[in-house]
Amino acid sequence: MTTLYIEPFSGLAGDMFLAALLDLGDERFQVADLEALARALVPGECTLSVTTAWRGNLSGKLLDVRTDESTKAPHRHLSDLLALLDRAPRELLPERAKQRAGRVFRRIAEAEGRVHGCAPEEIHFHEVGAVDTLIDVAGAMCALERLGVTRVLAHAPVTGTGTVKCAHGEMPVPAPAVAELLRGRALDVSGGGGERLTPTGAALLAELVERFEHPGPFAATKIGYGAGHKDPKVGPPNLVRVQLGELAPRAAASVAGTTSASTPSNGTRAEAWLCEVNLDDMTGEELAHAARAVRERGALDVWTTSVLMKKERPGVVLSALCRSDTREAIEAALFEHTSTLGMRWTRVERTECGRRTIEVALDGHALRVKVRERPCYEGASALGERDLSPEHDDVARIASATGLSLREVERRAIAQALRGLA
């Protein structure tokens, strides 16, 4: 599986991460792709430039997004940013990338809400609400999709030290929102005076990386450097490095949280958390709304099971599977949208297939096809086969538009996807 290893040895900001992805030099995601995405998100509102910048004895790409907001940051709400993301067509911003970008902004809103004691929807985004941050986050998620990245790793980021001046006044470093976003994770509180890790950079790491650690044996095929706009004279050079490549089989097993010799060679075993709540006083519509809210907060899977409860009353168990860094968001959603008085948490392990989504074109219509790469087990038949599953919503939409049957659209989509994967 394609792995991206992020090295925030000098911290991380959204523009640095996106610039480093552009510096990989991969033809699947280039500056022209980012410019097209920017035009779709905010037509006529920004100009982009990518140049080479030196930071100490190292150079990297410097991304500059200039808008009317560059000198005066706007005050947007979470709903405003999500509405802007929704503008982008799927061929420029695939659905999974759009959802990931939305979760990054939701994470920031939730962190700011905890800091300021209000609901995420009430937060006024200041610097983070500007057009350049929207492009940084959406562009990064689009790049990960185009590059086929299935796993993102990173070591502990450098945060900087001292204080930083922002819209809320002078704040300690790491900034309160950064501390909230990465609460429970080991950070490298060093790097010289000032802010090295921004809220956007922290939110990207929180969304993409399950835990901070070095990958072990790793074969990089492409390497990119992204430069920050400041060039501090104290501390490490203001750059982030990203490496695109593959983990060695043993390293993949280690990152997944196991050292078992039976780990499949192209699958991973990863730690997850199972959350369960018993409910007997909610309607079906209320349960559906709660399940949807939990899924939107980052759950890997959500389901319900019918049970008998006290006094033989029928009820349901609402279950959610998530990573450790989304537990708090899942709890908040369950307390907000259900009548539960508490919940159970169980640590579990799951073996995960390689998964990605590709897009094909049928009669001028874009259609998403999910690719599942089954793990390889020694001595088993059909080792490492790929399963292709066209997205049903897209299949139904194209069938209605073309008059073809659902099965014919599925057949053509799979054939087109196989040609692209050959």
Description:
The chain has 422 residues and is α+β, with helices and mostly antiparallel strands. It has three domains: 3-254, no CATH class; 268-352, Transcriptional regulatory protein pf0864 domain like (Alpha-Beta Plaits), CATH 3.30.70.1380; 354-421, Ubiquitin-like (UB roll). It has twelve helices and 17 strands. The strands form six sheets. It has a four-stranded mixed beta sheet with strand order 4-1-10-9. Strands 12-13-11-14 form a four-stranded antiparallel beta sheet. It is globular, with a radius of gyration of 22 Å.
Task: Give me the secondary-structure topology.
Blueprint: E1 3-7, H1 14-23, H2 31-41, E2 46-55, E3 58-67, H3 78-87, H4 95-116, H5 131-146, E4 151-154, E5 160-161, E6 163-166, E7 169-172, H6 176-181, E8 194-195, H7 199-208, E9 218-227, E10 239-247, H8 249-255, E11 268-279, H9 284-296, E12 301-308, E13 314-322, H10 327-337, E14 344-352, E15 354-362, E16 365-373, E17 386-390, H11 392-402, H12 406-421
Parallel strand pairs: 1-4
Antiparallel strand pairs: 1-10, 2-3, 5-8, 6-7, 9-10, 11-13, 11-14, 12-13, 15-16, 16-17
Helix pairs in contact: 1-5, 2-5, 3-4, 4-5, 4-7, 9-10, 11-12
